[in-house]
Amino acid sequence: MSNNERMRRVIVVGGGIGGLAAALAVARENIQVLLLEQADQIGEIGAGIQLGANAFNALDWLGVGERARSRAVFTDSLTMMDAVDAKEVARVETGDAYTKRFGNPYGVIHRADIHLSILEAVQGNPLIKFRTSTHVQRIEQDANSVTVIDQRGERYTADALIGADGVKSVVRATLIGDEAKVTGHVVYRAVVDVENMPKDLQINSPVVWAGPHCHLVHYPLRGGKQYNLVVTFHSRQKEEWGVTDGSKEEVLSYFENIHPLPHQMLDRPSSWRRWATADRDPVEQWSFGRTTVLGDAAHPMTQYLAQGACQALEDAVVLGEAIRATGEDFVAAFKLYEQVRIPRAARVLYSAREMGRIYHAKGVERLVRNSLWVGRTREQFYDAMQWLYGWRAEDCLEGNRLTAAS
């Protein structure tokens, strides 16, 4: 860069997994990043998340794959059980054969640990600066720059803006103005120490217990020292999106008719966190001028494919590659980014909705679900998952080539 050339600058709003990944992706292109976070400190709440091969591919591209692997637990399978009769519905191997097929493993990790793995790299990058306790309230942009104004009236100006500020995104509200769709599905999450986990549920696998209008999930974290517990049910009341403390009594009231084997884990957590979930219908445009959105701000989705964080990581990679491919023409880069990402993220979102229906089937629909995968071979399962786990950073700008395969 000559003395007459000014270094480009990008503002990222939001310090979650997607925001940190976006900051790393942009900084790879020798662009200064200012990351604005409304919380008092950069951190993460929640419990465990699942990382498919596509997520590890993205993490490798970001340069943090080995950090994440060192904190993850690698599973033997993905298993679905019937929560009514405790019979196995389907089991997909996620060991060596999965890694050979998709190029990366399937892992589970505490949300705080994957966040930390990316944060460490961000903190070590001199091009990225933080500002916490900063709540963006207004955005202004012209042909050459974008300015955000915070709750104190302070103004921050850059060449481009990336909103990674979650389901209740201020950036998205400014660009699009649509409302999130509250699903009516409530998710409870907790982490318990292995000593408090029922012995017959200490399984090295994300296990889904699929029940009528409800399901339960458990899997190991932190070297098997802890277990992640998740329960989901269709709420009897009108819900508003948000996160609160949960009630064991409420959980038990929705799971009275399931088999004793999975039911026993409901008494184990000393506390629960309660999420009233929401998603959004896909849109045909989420980039406007020098401003775009990423992760839950772009495509909030239900948890039924365990792909929320994975898709945010993919977003960051594609965004970085689009900036590189367009020579830092941010308007062109953001258009390329959305052209690649909107169809794929929409497919994942729609698939997650359908998987939620499958998980929560009852009556005859439950019987149909339990027969869907009878006799299916490992390779047939992998073929069906190729579109999802076969994503690669190396050819991510080719767009829908992988999403076209089923």
From TrEMBL:
EC number(s) per entry: 1.14.13.24
- Supply the source organism for this entry: Acidocella aromatica
* Superkingdom in the source lineage: Bacteria
Q: Which Gene3D superfamilies match?
A: FAD/NAD(P)-binding domain (3.50.50.60)
Tell me which InterPro entries the record gives: FAD-bd, FAD-dep_Monooxygenase_BioMet, FAD/NAD-bd_sf
**Is NAD a UniProt keyword of this protein?**
yes
User: Which cofactor does the UniProt annotation name?
Assistant: FAD
Query: What family classification does the UniProt entry report for this protein?
Result: Belongs to the 3-hydroxybenzoate 6-hydroxylase family.
UniProt-recorded name of the protein: 3-hydroxybenzoate 6-hydroxylase
Keyword annotations for this protein, in alphabetical order, are: Aromatic hydrocarbons catabolism, FAD, Flavoprotein, Monooxygenase, NAD, Oxidoreductase
